[in-house]
């Protein structure tokens, strides 16, 4: 049961991070002036919203087995505030740098959760899929490309 509590805690932090990143991209898309970065921010906001939806589904399954939910809720509020401060995107000039920082932070959070022993298989597969997706985008950015889909 102690392991479930650790997994729930880390998964909840990941949900919070993805929610805050989604909101940051949403706010950035209204502040940015460049149409290319504006479109990119909108797409990433939608993507992170999907991540949140899938992660929350897995979290709901695990929370049924955890008794320490009330104690964790207070901590999650502080986590949310810390992420919110870190991931503000204010203008086009800082956009790419912030996106890169957000992706690195996200990948580290995914890796942290993936290092937990006894992760449920469905959660592990979901985390690997999302983390690998973020990692691929990070590699694209490192090559100096920013990809916006044409849909």
In a nutshell, what does this entry contain?
81% of the residues lie in helices and 0% in strands. By secondary structure, it is mostly helical. The chain is globular.
Q: Please identify the structural class as seen in this structure.
A: mainly alpha
Number of strands: 0
Shape: globular
The tally of helices reads 5
Cα end-to-end separation: 44 Å
Mean pLDDT: 82
Q: Determine the fraction of residues in helical runs and give it as a percent range.
A: over 70%
Low-confidence residue ranges: none
Please state roughly what percent of the residues sit in beta strands, choosing from under 5%, 5-15%, 15-25%, 25-35%, 35-45% or over 45%.
under 5%
Largest sheet: none
- Please trace the helix and strand order, writing H or E for each element: HHHHH
Query: Radius of gyration over alpha carbons?
Result: 16 Å
Description:
This protein is an all-alpha fold and 151 residues long. The chain is 81% helix and 0% strand. The model has no long low-confidence stretch (mean pLDDT 82).
Q: Which SSEs are present, and which pair or pack?
A:
Blueprint: H1 2-31, H2 35-63, H3 69-86, H4 92-114, H5 121-142
Keywords:
single chain; 151 residues; mainly alpha; 5 helices; 81% helix
């Amino acid at each position: 049961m102690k392991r479930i509590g650790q997994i729930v805690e880390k998964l909840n932090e990941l949900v919070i991070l993805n929610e805050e990143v989604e909101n940051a991209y949403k706010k950035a898309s209204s502040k940015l002036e460049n149409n290319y970065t504006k479109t990119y921010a909108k797409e990433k906001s939608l993507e992170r919203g999907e991540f949140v939806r899938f992660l929350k589904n897995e979290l709901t399954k695990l929370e049924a087995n955890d008794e320490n939910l009330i104690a964790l809720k207070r901590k999650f509020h502080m986590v949310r505030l810390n992420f919110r401060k870190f991931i503000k995107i204010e203008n086009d000039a800082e956009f790419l740098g912030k996106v890169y920082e957000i992706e690195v932070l996200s990948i580290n959070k995914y890796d942290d959760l993936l290092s937990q022993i006894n992760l449920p298989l469905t959660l592990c597969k979901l985390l690997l899929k999302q983390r690998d997706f973020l990692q691929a985008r990070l590699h694209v950015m490192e090559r100096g490309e920013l990809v916006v889909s044409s849909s």
